[in-house]
Design a protein that fits this description.
CATH class of the largest domain: Mainly Beta
Number of domains: 2
Strand content: 35-45%
Number of strands: 9
Order of helices and strands: EEEEEHEEEHE
CATH topology of the largest domain: OB fold (Dihydrolipoamide Acetyltransferase, E2P)
CATH superfamily of the largest domain: Nucleic acid-binding proteins
Oligomer: single chain
Low-confidence stretches: none
Strand order of the largest sheet: 3-2-1-4-5
Distance between the termini: 25 Å
Largest sheet: 5 strands, antiparallel
Shape: globular
Helix content: under 10%
Amino acid sequence: AKPGRVVKGTVVGVQDFGLFIKLSENIKALCPVAHLSDAPRSKISSKFEVGLRIKVRILETDAGRRRITVTHKKTLLNTKLPLVAAPSDAAPGMKTHGYVSGIEEYGVFVSFLAGIKGIARVADLGLAADQTPHEAFQIGQVVKAKVLGPDSSRN
């Protein structure tokens, strides 16, 4: 189960925090509630019930903890843009889809596949002069991002 791959699975559990999805005989994944649709959500829609077959994209895998996290966000499932699943995938100038995973006064954190994160600094967000990142963005919101370059202060 490689990050970025689109697979079909069957809902085998519905919890307040997300869905458990059976991808194969021995493999289950978690789709957190925030990843059930493009619109940031805090509640699970009643349309998600045990037995439902859904298409998901693998976000990240943790072999050590035997955990797979998936997304059902339509934009992330259907994007035609290249995806970032490793730091080497993030070529300067490339456009990709990600989702907002943190909001600070100085910028917005955007998450991609395999735990890869980036920051869009406030000057690069295209906000109105009196607008703050907290007013313009929500955690879980799908965004189109342009890679400016690697952060050389991190590895």
